Amino acid sequence: MNAPDNPPRDPRSDRLGTAPLGPLMVRMSIPGMVGMIIMSVHNIVDTLWVSGLPDGTEAVAALTVMFPVQMIAGAVGMGIAMGLTSLVSRRLGEDRRRQAQRGAGNGIVLAAGFGIVLTLLAITASEPAVKLFGATPEIVDRAAGYLRYVGLAFPFFMVGLALDGLYRGGGNIITPMCLMGLSALLNAGLDPLLIYGLGPFPRLALDGAAIATAISQVTAASVSLVYLYSGRAGFHLIRSDFRPDLAIIKDIGQVGAPATAMNSLRSVVASVFNWVLGGFGPAAIAAHGLSLRVMMLVISCLGGGVHQALMPIVGYNFGGKNYRRMWDAYKIAAVWTSAGGLLIGGAVIWYAEPILAPFAKEPELLELSVISLRLKMSTFFLVEPQMMALFALEGMGFGGRAMVLTLSRGVILVIPALFLLSAWLGVTGAFMAQPVADVLSLFIAGAVLWRVYRKYPPQVSPLP
Predict the structure, then answer these.
(1) Model pTM?
(2) C-alpha torsion angle, residues 158, 159, 161, 162 (rounded to 10)
(3) Which residues in 165-227 belong to E strands, given as ranges?
(4) Which helix (H) or strand (E) segment is 337 a member of?
(5) What is the pLDDT of residues 392-431, one digit of tens each?
(6) How far apart are the first and last CA of the chain?
(7) Which residues of 90-106 are buried (b: 16+ CB within 10 A; e: fewer)?
(8) How many C-beta atoms lie closer than 10 Å to residue 265's C-beta?
(9) Which DSSP letter does residue 172 get?
């Protein structure tokens, strides 16, 4: 089957360069926010069901240890997804639509291949993996069992993430939201059945949560593939699009590889946190995990949706050399998220205890979780503009510069702070490490963004 040199235009991508920015970002942010909120609620629901088990604190601690392990699989999938979003939006902005289709095929193949490799590792090396990421002897068996079941779905999970990135690159935010909703609703329905053995289902405890997650991910990815080949996705792939093309893989990798490395480094940092907090007992690890899940939900309510609008808009207009519109999009995103972060962060700090009480049944766990959450939220309004800068750089295809931002905040500054503050102030000092790094990294983010702004100033944008 022969494909046209330039497939038909899709109005969903054309609007990235022409629609009024404010309303466009609202329309594109809301579905992204809804999708991210759904997934964050799903993570919290998982924790809620698991916390009700007789060994609830240990089970929540096992989930927390599993978090960096899952982050590695997610890092690969999200790296490919971000590389696809950047490539596809830039090629559409340049009106090179055939290249966007070929990028889609190569991205799907990459995601599936890496997923298979990670599945084999999860099955054959689950116990060493969870020990490496901070599992204490009390929780090794639980965490390793969870990894083996979740790992079976890694190829589907990563293909699903790559397809989400593809759709967003083309300006389609609704479909990823619906797919996230499908996965989360299916997981929420299966969780109590498989964890507690309701009706004809066996009682599988923590393993049941893992199996529910795997089933939901396989289902969502399968539906996404059906949608892609239905023609309604705006992409019309042919067999040759799946043939590896080194130039396209390199283009995906120039954003995707740094993004994967950054997210993988986050898992390493999360493991270091687990190791340090493990010295204060399972309750400290569990408290860190609970506060992270709540913070992820808060991020979903704000930056988690806005960045899904910002990245394709920046990529499309960078490809079309409309730098004025590109920087205007970043300014809108940064102001919105910083102001929202101040308001939402303040509310979460004020109501931290009632928010966490349903998940932290033991007094020690509740007390530590409240401290951890309040400290994390204290710098939320400073973090969001930095995250918008990171996604804007990735939209332009500058994965290396984006990695500098992540390394400064997430590794170079936070690790020394973790060891120094935990030695000085104990578990509270460990919880303080990330807020301290958030403040210091603001200056680095400003310097990196200023250099890019001087190279691509708005004054050189083409006339409308």
Answers:
(1) 0.71
(2) 120
(3) none
(4) helix 323-350
(5) 998 888 878 888 887 888 788 989 999 999 999 898 999 9
(6) 38
(7) bbbbeebbebbbbbbbb
(8) 17
(9) -
